Amino acid sequence: MKDFKRYLITAALPYANGPIHIGHLAGVYLPADIYVRYLRAQKRDVKFVSGSDEHGVPITIRAMKEGVTPKEIVDKYHAIIKDSLAQMGVSFDIYSRTSNQIHHKTASDFFINLYDKGLFEEKETEQYYDEKAKTFLADRYIIGTCPVCGNPNAYGDQCERCGSSLSPELLINPRSALSDATPIKKKTKHWYFPLQNYESFLKQWILEEHKEWKNNVYGQCKSWLDNGLQSRAMTRDSNWGIKVPLPDAEGKVLYVWFDAPIGYISATKELTDNWKDYWQSEDSRLIHFIGKDNIVFHCIIFPAMLKAHGDFVLPDNVPANEFLNIEGDKVSTSRNWAVWVDEYLKDFPGCEDVLRYVLCSNAPEAKDNDFTWKDFQDKNNSELASIFGNFVNRTFVLMHKLCGGKVPKLHEDLMDDLDRTLIEEIKNSKSKVENAIEEFKFREALFEVIDLSRKGNKYMQEKEPWKKAASLERLAASEENGSKLEAHSSQQLIDNCLHLCLQLTANLAILINPFLPFTAQKLLHMMKVVDKILDWENAGSIKLLSVGYSLRAPEILFRKIEDKEIEMQVEKLKNGLVRTDTSSQLPDAVNQKSETSNQQPHEINHIKSEIVYDDFAKLDLRVGKIVSADKVAKADKLLKLEIDLGFEKRTIVSGIALHFKAEEIVGKQVVVVANLAPRKMRGIESNGMILMAEDKSGKLHFVNPDDETDAGSVVS
RNA sequence: GGCGGGGUAGCUCAGUUGGUAAGAGCGUCGGAUUCAUAACCCGGAGGUCAGGAGUUCAAUUCUCCUUCCCGCUACCA
What confidence score (pLDDT) does residue A142 get? Predict the structure, then answer.
């Protein structure tokens, strides 16, 4: 490998139209952070940049729907995302945003550079246009009746009901998803970047010179290159984004995919005046951490842009990860099937490293993986708490009991094979972890760290210093000749054992640091040593803690996670109790953006697909009266209601506690879905559902008869 | 529809330039132990390596077909 002097690590820019979930962390931010922390520990010159991607059509649509400005949307989510990442310990040197002035300038200049060289093609095409909303429409934003199956809410690119591939022309009665206006065709001019001109260069660069890239990345690139590249529009009609810096370009902005990767450059500029060292010097190593949906942009389009510009280095590697599923289903923000990082941080305070551990040890490095809460609990309780945490704990406890709270001496003359083997293992761990990280195999690297603590446990088990301590007591009580001598050597053996266990613990701190930085800090505190000890070159040494140095009492590194806690999370997920109001309806990939057709919103404020009368008739709706209402213990949002249906009384658990006080609603009339399958919530069986109306602000209102009606009356 | 990645123990994943018992962690079962967060340590059980065909002395590993999951893309390879 080339000898690089500098490293520039980028993590995909999260799209600022929603918070981030654990899939983003597992796929992009944690691997990047681990790599960066490792490089820093090696004292290499490294910069770690990222930021919010704040342009693109989905944000404007969302703003329109919520009646706010795009700026308000991105301000809100930029803050949330930045905060979540910071709290999780993702150690960016800078987390910027593409709405910054410096980025506008950088991206415009980049565009002009290519423009002045005559590298763009200008093309005029006809696009669909919504005259009411005064905006051009992507296929996905055009809705109409499917010509194949008659679904009245088919999208302009595909019918979700029958799966037919469509185009807007095929739709019957097409209408705009934004305003219901009938789209018209309108001419528009755009600037295209002829990727085909870079095909032979890219083939050489990737297929020949970067065979070491991961299978999924290399394969995807090969597929694109084999199939031939074509011109791609680099501008869009919109008023949200970076204005095309040309005189005749009113109402046009840079395509979000042109501007977003340039965000890496802008962020670096913002970070340091020496940004050119990282971007324009051949001995700098550029690495992009991304999710698999971004491969083509980071491996084909952006490198072609950089090449066209000419002043920049190209990525040396793009270790894209696959996706993380949740409890067997793929993440979907529209269905609210996700574990949100900001929620996790609230639910599990002080457990940042636990999430880091679980997501890294099960990262989707080679294929899509599954996250389950049970697995989260198991990994924490067995690997972190029982193996790693417990080893450190028993080492410290024994050291305090048997060695007076100080680092005991190592008596080399008494060392045996077990000792020597352990020392060897400590040394080996360093290179094992190192090699794995260099190859972006973070789960394997992390396993090696845990495995070292496993070896520590085994070593201690075989040495049994507590037994030697017991015999020591016996000897002390005895008056026999020679017992003093024996006691002396027993203590020396205890010393050796704990000396090595403590040095091993110091090694664990160094090795775990890139993965679990908060834990490494706790270890430093317990060992009363400074950050300097975490320098990577110290790993493998057994001379990290000085003999006679007194250490603090142990603190529990990882608490056990109870069944109840994960049950709650599973329930939270399944009931969709959280954020049903956020209407984050964009499908999400690790980096959700793109204005390509099949990544557009699933649903935009329109009626659900049509049903027939029989579908409706299946519902048994009844008028009921609330007899009593009680707050459900340990549940923020649940009320347990007794409902009188005339012919019977039944219990219904309803998620309305944030909106109503229990005592206020007793006596109220309600409409109940009486034949809904029973469901247990927090241990209480709920037999039905209360109908509620939700207004714009998210406030709930009871749906009930105009005037007093007999309980049990049928609603139809 | 095309292309790419993947389908290996109950779970999550390694691995095989084709060949001498198919691996790990967790879980499970049994044993030992008590310094420790009812922890640790030892041992056992558990897989016709998605299905089928072919090449070969030999295939989980190569080729072809089928099937399932994921991503990219579109009537074009």
Answer: 82
Nucleotide nearest to A157 (CA to C1'): B74
Q: What is the mean pLDDT of chain A?
A: 83
Nucleotides of B under 7 A from a protein CB: 2-7, 11-15, 24-27, 34-37, 39-42, 69-75, 77
Tokens of A496: 């050796």
Positions 588-607 of A with beta carbon below 7 A from strand B are 589, 596-599
* A335 beta carbon to strand B: under 7 Å: no
Q: Yes or no: is domain A394-538 CATH 1.10.730.10?
A: yes
Residues of chain A with CATH 1.10.730.10: 394-538
A400 Cβ within 7 A of any nucleic strand B atom: no
CA angle A632, A635, A636 (to 5 degrees): 110
Question: What is the nearest nucleotide to A228, using C1' and CA?
Answer: B77
Tens of pLDDT, residues A406-459: 999 999 999 999 999 999 999 999 999 998 898 888 988 999 999 999 999 999
Q: Which of A108-112, A577-581, A614-618, A699-703 has the highest mean pLDDT?
A: A108-112
> Nearest-5° angle of CA A18, CA A24, CA A29?
120
**DSSP assignments along A170-218, one per residue:** GSEEEEETTT-PPPEEEEEEEEEEEGGGGHHHHIIIIIIT-TTS-HHHH
HEC string of A99-129 equals: CCHHHHHHHHHHHHHHHHCCCCEEEEEEEEE
| Ranges in chain A annotated CATH 2.40.50.140 | 613-715
Please give the pLDDT value at position A56: 84
- Alpha helices by DSSP H, listed for A42-100, are 57-66, 70-87
Q: How many CB atoms lie within 10 A of CB A10?
A: 27
Is the shortest CB-to-strand distance from A42 to strand B under 7 Å?
A: no
Angle at A582 between CA A581 and CA A585, to 5 degrees: 115
Query: Nearest nucleotide, C1' to the C-alpha of A392?
Result: B36
Interatomic separation, CA of residue A5 and C1' of nucleotide B18, rounded (Å): 42
Rounded to whole angstroms, the Cα distance separating A268 from A13 reads 13
Name the residue among A492, A432, A429, A499 with its Cα closest to residue A460.
A499
More confident of the two residues A455 and A599: A455
Q: Name the CATH superfamily for A613-715.
A: Nucleic acid-binding proteins (2.40.50.140)
CATH 1.10.1740.10 fits A6-122+188-326, yes or no: no
Of A435, A462, A345, nearest to A22 (Cα)?
A345
CA A446 to C1' B50, in angstroms, rounded, equals 30
Say yes or no: Cβ of A375 under 7 A from any atom of strand B. Answer: yes
Q: What is the pTM of this model?
A: 0.81
What pLDDT score was predicted for residue A600? 24
Whose tokens are 């949307």? That residue is A73
Q: Name the residue among A25, A137, A17 with its Cα closest to residue A84.
A: A25
CA of A560: nearest nucleotide by C1' is B37
The answer to whether the beta carbon of residue A334 comes closer than 7 angstroms to any atom of strand B is no
